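During the reporting period, we have paired protein sequences with C-alpha coordinates. One record among many follows, to show the layout:
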Amino acid sequence: MVVQGGMDARDAAVAAVELEPFLHQVGGHLSVLKYDEHTICKPLISQEQKFYESLPLAMKQFTPQYKGTITVHLRKDSFGHISLVANPLTKSQGPFQVSRESTVAIWQTLQQTASNSGSTNPLAQWQHAQLAHSLKESPAKSLLRSEFCLSSQVLSLVEDAEKNQAQAESSSFNPWGLHCHQAHLTRLCAEYPKNKLHRFLLLENLVSQYKRPCILDLKMGTRQHGDDASEEKKARHMRKCAQSTSACLGVRICGMQVYQVDKKHFLCKDKYYGRKLSVEGFRQALYQFLHNGTHLRTELLGPIQRQLQALLSVIRSQSSYRFYSSSLLIVYDGQDLPESTSGGPHQDLQSARGSSSDNLAKVDIRMIDFAHTTYKGSWNEHTTHDGPDPGFIFGLENLIQILQNIQ
Protein backbone atom coordinates (compact mmCIF):
# COMPACT_ATOMS: atom_id res chain seq x y z
CA MET A 1 0.00 0.00 0.00
CA VAL A 2 1.34 3.42 -0.91
CA VAL A 3 1.58 5.68 2.11
CA GLN A 4 1.24 9.41 1.59
CA GLY A 5 0.54 12.46 3.71
CA GLY A 6 2.24 13.93 6.78
CA MET A 7 4.19 11.90 9.39
CA ASP A 8 7.09 12.43 11.73
CA ALA A 9 10.65 11.31 11.06
CA ARG A 10 10.31 8.12 13.11
CA ASP A 11 7.19 7.04 11.21
CA ALA A 12 8.88 7.85 7.89
CA ALA A 13 11.87 5.70 8.79
CA VAL A 14 9.60 2.76 9.64
CA ALA A 15 7.66 3.21 6.39
CA ALA A 16 10.78 3.45 4.22
CA VAL A 17 10.79 0.98 1.34
CA GLU A 18 13.88 -0.44 -0.33
CA LEU A 19 13.22 -0.27 -4.05
CA GLU A 20 13.84 -3.19 -6.37
CA PRO A 21 14.49 -3.21 -10.11
CA PHE A 22 11.26 -3.83 -12.00
CA LEU A 23 11.94 -7.11 -13.80
CA HIS A 24 9.28 -6.58 -16.47
CA GLN A 25 10.59 -3.31 -17.90
CA VAL A 26 11.00 -4.06 -21.60
CA GLY A 27 11.75 -0.58 -23.01
CA GLY A 28 12.51 3.01 -22.19
CA HIS A 29 15.74 4.44 -20.82
CA LEU A 30 14.81 5.70 -17.34
CA SER A 31 14.93 3.22 -14.49
CA VAL A 32 11.58 1.78 -13.42
CA LEU A 33 11.56 0.37 -9.89
CA LYS A 34 9.16 -1.77 -7.91
CA TYR A 35 7.63 -0.03 -4.87
CA ASP A 36 5.19 -2.78 -3.93
CA GLU A 37 3.23 -5.52 -5.69
CA HIS A 38 0.79 -3.06 -7.25
CA THR A 39 2.98 0.04 -7.62
CA ILE A 40 6.06 1.00 -9.61
CA CYS A 41 8.00 4.24 -9.53
CA LYS A 42 10.21 6.15 -11.95
CA PRO A 43 12.27 9.37 -11.83
CA LEU A 44 9.97 12.37 -11.89
CA ILE A 45 9.89 14.65 -14.90
CA SER A 46 7.75 17.72 -14.28
CA GLN A 47 6.03 17.67 -17.66
CA GLU A 48 4.97 14.06 -17.18
CA GLN A 49 3.67 14.75 -13.68
CA LYS A 50 1.63 17.67 -14.99
CA PHE A 51 0.13 15.44 -17.67
CA TYR A 52 -1.02 12.84 -15.15
CA GLU A 53 -2.44 15.51 -12.85
CA SER A 54 -4.50 17.08 -15.68
CA LEU A 55 -5.34 13.84 -17.50
CA PRO A 56 -8.58 13.97 -19.52
CA LEU A 57 -11.19 11.63 -18.07
CA ALA A 58 -11.57 9.72 -21.33
CA MET A 59 -7.87 8.78 -21.27
CA LYS A 60 -7.73 7.38 -17.75
CA GLN A 61 -8.74 3.89 -18.84
CA PHE A 62 -5.77 3.85 -21.23
CA THR A 63 -3.06 5.12 -18.86
CA PRO A 64 -1.61 3.76 -15.62
CA GLN A 65 -3.26 5.00 -12.45
CA TYR A 66 -1.28 7.93 -11.06
CA LYS A 67 -0.63 7.49 -7.32
CA GLY A 68 1.32 10.63 -6.49
CA THR A 69 5.03 11.10 -5.79
CA ILE A 70 7.60 9.98 -3.26
CA THR A 71 11.11 11.03 -2.29
CA VAL A 72 13.99 8.60 -2.80
CA HIS A 73 17.53 8.65 -1.45
CA LEU A 74 20.65 6.50 -1.54
CA ARG A 75 21.36 4.35 1.49
CA LYS A 76 24.67 2.67 2.26
CA ASP A 77 24.82 -0.17 4.78
CA SER A 78 27.71 -1.08 7.08
CA PHE A 79 29.30 -3.14 4.29
CA GLY A 80 29.23 -0.21 1.89
CA HIS A 81 26.45 -1.62 -0.29
CA ILE A 82 24.22 0.93 -2.01
CA SER A 83 20.45 0.75 -2.31
CA LEU A 84 17.64 3.15 -3.20
CA VAL A 85 15.12 3.80 -0.44
CA ALA A 86 11.74 5.50 -0.82
CA ASN A 87 10.11 7.56 1.89
CA PRO A 88 6.49 8.78 1.88
CA LEU A 89 5.97 12.47 1.20
CA THR A 90 5.64 14.80 4.17
CA LYS A 91 3.55 17.95 4.11
CA SER A 92 6.54 20.13 4.95
CA GLN A 93 8.43 19.25 1.79
CA GLY A 94 8.42 21.90 -0.90
CA PRO A 95 8.22 21.36 -4.63
CA PHE A 96 11.20 19.88 -6.44
CA GLN A 97 12.55 21.32 -9.66
CA VAL A 98 13.36 18.30 -11.81
CA SER A 99 14.67 18.85 -15.30
CA ARG A 100 14.29 16.37 -18.14
CA GLU A 101 18.01 16.64 -18.82
CA SER A 102 18.97 15.41 -15.34
CA THR A 103 16.99 12.20 -15.77
CA VAL A 104 17.71 11.52 -19.43
CA ALA A 105 21.41 11.80 -18.61
CA ILE A 106 21.04 8.52 -16.70
CA TRP A 107 20.84 6.72 -20.02
CA GLN A 108 23.87 8.57 -21.31
CA THR A 109 25.78 7.26 -18.29
CA LEU A 110 24.84 3.72 -19.28
CA GLN A 111 26.06 4.24 -22.83
CA GLN A 112 29.34 5.74 -21.62
CA THR A 113 29.90 2.92 -19.15
CA ALA A 114 29.15 0.31 -21.80
CA SER A 115 32.17 1.35 -23.82
CA ASN A 116 34.42 0.54 -20.86
CA SER A 117 32.62 -2.53 -19.53
CA GLY A 118 34.02 -6.03 -19.18
CA SER A 119 34.94 -8.59 -16.56
CA THR A 120 38.29 -6.91 -15.88
CA ASN A 121 36.81 -3.45 -15.36
CA PRO A 122 37.02 -2.69 -11.58
CA LEU A 123 34.13 -0.22 -11.76
CA ALA A 124 31.93 -2.73 -13.56
CA GLN A 125 32.85 -5.42 -11.03
CA TRP A 126 32.05 -3.09 -8.14
CA GLN A 127 28.73 -2.13 -9.71
CA HIS A 128 27.90 -5.77 -10.30
CA ALA A 129 28.63 -6.60 -6.66
CA GLN A 130 26.51 -3.66 -5.51
CA LEU A 131 23.50 -4.76 -7.50
CA ALA A 132 23.96 -8.43 -6.62
CA HIS A 133 23.86 -7.49 -2.95
CA SER A 134 20.85 -5.21 -3.36
CA LEU A 135 18.86 -8.00 -5.02
CA LYS A 136 18.71 -10.39 -2.09
CA GLU A 137 15.78 -11.84 -0.11
CA SER A 138 12.74 -11.26 -2.32
CA PRO A 139 11.73 -13.99 -4.82
CA ALA A 140 12.42 -11.68 -7.74
CA LYS A 141 15.82 -10.81 -6.34
CA SER A 142 16.64 -14.46 -5.67
CA LEU A 143 15.78 -15.32 -9.28
CA LEU A 144 17.94 -12.48 -10.45
CA ARG A 145 20.90 -13.53 -8.34
CA SER A 146 20.79 -17.18 -9.44
CA GLU A 147 20.01 -16.74 -13.12
CA PHE A 148 21.60 -13.41 -13.96
CA CYS A 149 24.25 -12.30 -11.51
CA LEU A 150 26.05 -15.64 -11.26
CA SER A 151 26.04 -16.46 -14.97
CA SER A 152 29.45 -16.47 -16.60
CA GLN A 153 27.89 -14.79 -19.62
CA VAL A 154 26.86 -11.72 -17.64
CA LEU A 155 29.82 -10.72 -15.49
CA SER A 156 28.94 -7.09 -16.22
CA LEU A 157 25.44 -5.63 -16.24
CA VAL A 158 26.44 -3.12 -18.89
CA GLU A 159 27.19 -4.83 -22.20
CA ASP A 160 26.83 -4.04 -25.86
CA ALA A 161 23.42 -4.43 -27.49
CA GLU A 162 24.24 -7.52 -29.53
CA LYS A 163 25.38 -9.47 -26.48
CA ASN A 164 22.37 -8.25 -24.54
CA GLN A 165 20.09 -9.58 -27.24
CA ALA A 166 21.62 -13.06 -27.23
CA GLN A 167 21.32 -13.29 -23.45
CA ALA A 168 17.79 -11.92 -23.37
CA GLU A 169 16.50 -14.54 -25.75
CA SER A 170 17.66 -17.34 -23.43
CA SER A 171 16.67 -15.80 -20.09
CA SER A 172 13.65 -16.48 -17.92
CA PHE A 173 13.24 -12.74 -17.33
CA ASN A 174 13.97 -9.53 -19.19
CA PRO A 175 17.34 -7.91 -18.31
CA TRP A 176 16.55 -4.49 -19.80
CA GLY A 177 15.32 -2.97 -16.56
CA LEU A 178 18.50 -4.07 -14.81
CA HIS A 179 20.62 -2.09 -17.23
CA CYS A 180 18.51 1.02 -16.65
CA HIS A 181 18.70 0.49 -12.89
CA GLN A 182 22.46 0.02 -13.07
CA ALA A 183 22.85 3.28 -15.00
CA HIS A 184 20.69 5.05 -12.45
CA LEU A 185 22.78 3.85 -9.50
CA THR A 186 25.98 4.72 -11.34
CA ARG A 187 24.85 8.28 -11.93
CA LEU A 188 23.45 8.83 -8.44
CA CYS A 189 26.61 7.52 -6.79
CA ALA A 190 28.86 9.61 -9.00
CA GLU A 191 27.03 12.94 -8.99
CA TYR A 192 24.90 13.25 -5.86
CA PRO A 193 25.59 13.10 -2.10
CA LYS A 194 24.04 10.23 -0.17
CA ASN A 195 21.50 12.46 1.57
CA LYS A 196 20.26 14.05 -1.67
CA LEU A 197 16.50 13.59 -2.08
CA HIS A 198 15.11 12.69 -5.49
CA ARG A 199 11.44 12.81 -6.46
CA PHE A 200 9.81 9.79 -8.15
CA LEU A 201 6.40 9.26 -9.72
CA LEU A 202 4.22 6.47 -8.31
CA LEU A 203 2.24 4.58 -10.95
CA GLU A 204 0.10 1.50 -11.19
CA ASN A 205 1.96 -1.75 -11.82
CA LEU A 206 0.13 -2.85 -14.96
CA VAL A 207 1.36 -6.44 -14.85
CA SER A 208 0.69 -7.27 -11.20
CA GLN A 209 -2.36 -9.36 -12.15
CA TYR A 210 -0.46 -11.49 -14.66
CA LYS A 211 1.41 -14.68 -13.87
CA ARG A 212 3.55 -14.61 -17.05
CA PRO A 213 3.21 -11.04 -18.38
CA CYS A 214 3.80 -10.79 -22.12
CA ILE A 215 4.54 -7.15 -22.96
CA LEU A 216 4.96 -5.27 -26.22
CA ASP A 217 6.30 -1.71 -26.00
CA LEU A 218 5.49 0.28 -29.14
CA LYS A 219 6.91 3.74 -29.78
CA MET A 220 4.02 5.59 -31.39
CA GLY A 221 3.91 8.34 -33.99
CA THR A 222 5.99 9.57 -36.90
CA ARG A 223 7.79 12.16 -34.76
CA GLN A 224 9.61 11.52 -31.48
CA HIS A 225 11.16 14.88 -30.49
CA GLY A 226 9.35 17.39 -28.33
CA ASP A 227 8.67 21.00 -29.24
CA ASP A 228 11.52 22.14 -26.99
CA ALA A 229 14.16 19.77 -28.45
CA SER A 230 17.50 21.19 -29.50
CA GLU A 231 18.44 21.10 -33.18
CA GLU A 232 20.90 18.28 -32.50
CA LYS A 233 18.33 16.19 -30.66
CA LYS A 234 15.70 16.95 -33.26
CA ALA A 235 17.99 15.74 -36.06
CA ARG A 236 18.90 12.59 -34.12
CA HIS A 237 15.29 11.60 -33.52
CA MET A 238 14.27 12.40 -37.07
CA ARG A 239 17.04 10.13 -38.30
CA LYS A 240 15.87 7.27 -36.06
CA CYS A 241 12.31 7.65 -37.34
CA ALA A 242 13.39 7.80 -40.99
CA GLN A 243 15.47 4.63 -40.63
CA SER A 244 12.76 2.61 -38.89
CA THR A 245 9.09 1.72 -39.26
CA SER A 246 8.18 4.93 -37.41
CA ALA A 247 8.25 6.85 -40.72
CA CYS A 248 6.18 4.47 -42.82
CA LEU A 249 3.92 2.90 -40.18
CA GLY A 250 3.85 5.46 -37.37
CA VAL A 251 4.90 2.74 -34.93
CA ARG A 252 8.04 0.79 -34.08
CA ILE A 253 8.94 -1.86 -31.53
CA CYS A 254 10.76 -0.49 -28.50
CA GLY A 255 10.96 -3.77 -26.59
CA MET A 256 9.01 -6.93 -25.91
CA GLN A 257 8.86 -10.12 -23.91
CA VAL A 258 6.69 -13.10 -24.74
CA TYR A 259 6.50 -16.26 -22.67
CA GLN A 260 7.42 -19.47 -24.47
CA VAL A 261 5.50 -22.29 -22.81
CA ASP A 262 7.58 -25.01 -24.49
CA LYS A 263 10.88 -23.63 -23.20
CA LYS A 264 9.50 -22.05 -20.01
CA HIS A 265 11.23 -18.72 -20.45
CA PHE A 266 10.63 -15.29 -21.94
CA LEU A 267 11.73 -14.49 -25.46
CA CYS A 268 12.96 -10.88 -25.25
CA LYS A 269 13.70 -8.21 -27.84
CA ASP A 270 15.04 -4.71 -27.22
CA LYS A 271 14.78 -1.35 -28.94
CA TYR A 272 17.83 -1.98 -31.11
CA TYR A 273 16.06 -4.98 -32.61
CA GLY A 274 12.96 -2.86 -33.22
CA ARG A 275 14.87 -0.11 -35.00
CA LYS A 276 16.23 -2.54 -37.59
CA LEU A 277 12.89 -4.04 -38.63
CA SER A 278 11.37 -3.57 -42.07
CA VAL A 279 7.60 -3.34 -42.49
CA GLU A 280 7.45 -7.08 -43.09
CA GLY A 281 9.78 -7.64 -40.15
CA PHE A 282 7.45 -5.60 -37.95
CA ARG A 283 4.51 -7.79 -39.01
CA GLN A 284 6.48 -10.94 -38.23
CA ALA A 285 7.52 -9.56 -34.84
CA LEU A 286 3.90 -8.77 -34.00
CA TYR A 287 2.97 -12.33 -34.96
CA GLN A 288 5.81 -13.61 -32.76
CA PHE A 289 4.54 -11.55 -29.83
CA LEU A 290 1.24 -13.44 -30.05
CA HIS A 291 2.89 -16.86 -30.38
CA ASN A 292 3.72 -18.81 -27.23
CA GLY A 293 6.13 -21.25 -28.84
CA THR A 294 3.48 -23.85 -29.57
CA HIS A 295 0.59 -21.95 -31.15
CA LEU A 296 -0.71 -18.50 -32.04
CA ARG A 297 -2.90 -16.99 -29.31
CA THR A 298 -5.76 -16.22 -31.70
CA GLU A 299 -8.18 -15.59 -28.84
CA LEU A 300 -6.24 -12.40 -28.06
CA LEU A 301 -6.73 -10.79 -31.47
CA GLY A 302 -10.33 -9.74 -30.88
CA PRO A 303 -9.78 -8.11 -27.46
CA ILE A 304 -6.63 -6.31 -28.62
CA GLN A 305 -8.31 -4.89 -31.72
CA ARG A 306 -11.38 -3.73 -29.80
CA GLN A 307 -9.29 -1.92 -27.23
CA LEU A 308 -7.15 -0.33 -29.93
CA GLN A 309 -10.30 0.86 -31.71
CA ALA A 310 -11.58 2.34 -28.44
CA LEU A 311 -8.24 4.09 -27.87
CA LEU A 312 -8.31 5.40 -31.43
CA SER A 313 -11.69 7.03 -30.74
CA VAL A 314 -10.33 8.64 -27.58
CA ILE A 315 -7.20 10.01 -29.29
CA ARG A 316 -9.28 11.45 -32.12
CA SER A 317 -11.27 13.42 -29.53
CA GLN A 318 -8.21 15.00 -27.85
CA SER A 319 -7.60 18.31 -29.58
CA SER A 320 -4.15 19.98 -29.25
CA TYR A 321 -2.49 16.90 -27.68
CA ARG A 322 0.77 15.65 -29.20
CA PHE A 323 2.10 12.47 -27.60
CA TYR A 324 5.68 12.82 -28.83
CA SER A 325 7.91 9.89 -27.80
CA SER A 326 5.15 8.17 -25.82
CA SER A 327 4.71 4.42 -25.95
CA LEU A 328 1.81 2.03 -26.16
CA LEU A 329 1.91 -1.15 -24.09
CA ILE A 330 0.05 -4.29 -25.09
CA VAL A 331 -0.04 -6.75 -22.20
CA TYR A 332 -1.50 -10.22 -21.85
CA ASP A 333 -0.87 -13.29 -19.72
CA GLY A 334 1.42 -15.93 -21.17
CA GLN A 335 -0.15 -18.44 -18.82
CA ASP A 336 -3.18 -19.86 -20.63
CA LEU A 337 -6.40 -19.61 -18.64
CA PRO A 338 -8.76 -22.62 -18.55
CA GLU A 339 -11.61 -22.12 -20.99
CA SER A 340 -14.04 -23.64 -18.52
CA THR A 341 -13.33 -21.01 -15.88
CA SER A 342 -16.26 -18.71 -15.25
CA GLY A 343 -17.03 -15.86 -12.88
CA GLY A 344 -14.51 -14.25 -10.54
CA PRO A 345 -12.48 -11.07 -10.78
CA HIS A 346 -10.95 -11.91 -14.17
CA GLN A 347 -14.37 -12.02 -15.76
CA ASP A 348 -15.33 -8.73 -14.15
CA LEU A 349 -12.12 -7.16 -15.44
CA GLN A 350 -12.67 -8.39 -18.96
CA SER A 351 -16.26 -7.19 -18.98
CA ALA A 352 -14.92 -3.74 -18.14
CA ARG A 353 -12.26 -4.05 -20.85
CA GLY A 354 -14.76 -5.28 -23.44
CA SER A 355 -13.50 -8.82 -23.93
CA SER A 356 -15.54 -11.08 -21.67
CA SER A 357 -16.57 -13.28 -24.60
CA ASP A 358 -13.04 -14.34 -25.54
CA ASN A 359 -12.49 -17.15 -23.04
CA LEU A 360 -11.43 -14.67 -20.37
CA ALA A 361 -8.47 -13.49 -22.46
CA LYS A 362 -6.82 -10.87 -20.24
CA VAL A 363 -5.52 -7.99 -22.33
CA ASP A 364 -4.44 -4.47 -21.40
CA ILE A 365 -3.73 -1.56 -23.73
CA ARG A 366 -2.06 1.41 -22.01
CA MET A 367 -0.20 4.54 -23.03
CA ILE A 368 2.95 5.40 -21.04
CA ASP A 369 5.83 7.91 -21.04
CA PHE A 370 4.56 11.48 -21.32
CA ALA A 371 7.73 13.51 -20.71
CA HIS A 372 7.42 15.14 -24.16
CA THR A 373 3.63 15.32 -24.38
CA THR A 374 2.35 18.81 -25.14
CA TYR A 375 -1.15 20.25 -25.19
CA LYS A 376 -2.89 23.57 -24.87
CA GLY A 377 -2.15 24.91 -21.40
CA SER A 378 0.81 22.65 -20.59
CA TRP A 379 3.36 24.54 -18.51
CA ASN A 380 6.18 24.75 -21.09
CA GLU A 381 4.04 24.87 -24.21
CA HIS A 382 5.45 27.16 -26.88
CA THR A 383 3.43 25.83 -29.79
CA THR A 384 -0.29 25.11 -29.66
CA HIS A 385 -1.23 22.32 -32.03
CA ASP A 386 -4.64 22.07 -33.64
CA GLY A 387 -6.74 18.94 -33.74
CA PRO A 388 -5.81 15.42 -32.60
CA ASP A 389 -2.35 13.86 -32.94
CA PRO A 390 -2.05 12.71 -36.59
CA GLY A 391 1.12 10.66 -36.06
CA PHE A 392 -0.33 8.68 -33.19
CA ILE A 393 -3.55 8.08 -35.11
CA PHE A 394 -1.58 6.96 -38.17
CA GLY A 395 0.31 4.43 -36.06
CA LEU A 396 -2.84 3.08 -34.41
CA GLU A 397 -4.61 2.65 -37.74
CA ASN A 398 -1.67 0.71 -39.20
CA LEU A 399 -1.35 -1.43 -36.09
CA ILE A 400 -5.04 -2.35 -36.24
CA GLN A 401 -4.76 -3.19 -39.93
CA ILE A 402 -1.78 -5.49 -39.38
CA LEU A 403 -3.62 -7.32 -36.60
CA GLN A 404 -6.62 -7.75 -38.88
CA ASN A 405 -4.31 -9.28 -41.50
CA ILE A 406 -2.91 -11.68 -38.92
CA GLN A 407 -6.41 -12.67 -37.88
Observations:
- The radius of gyration is 21 Å.
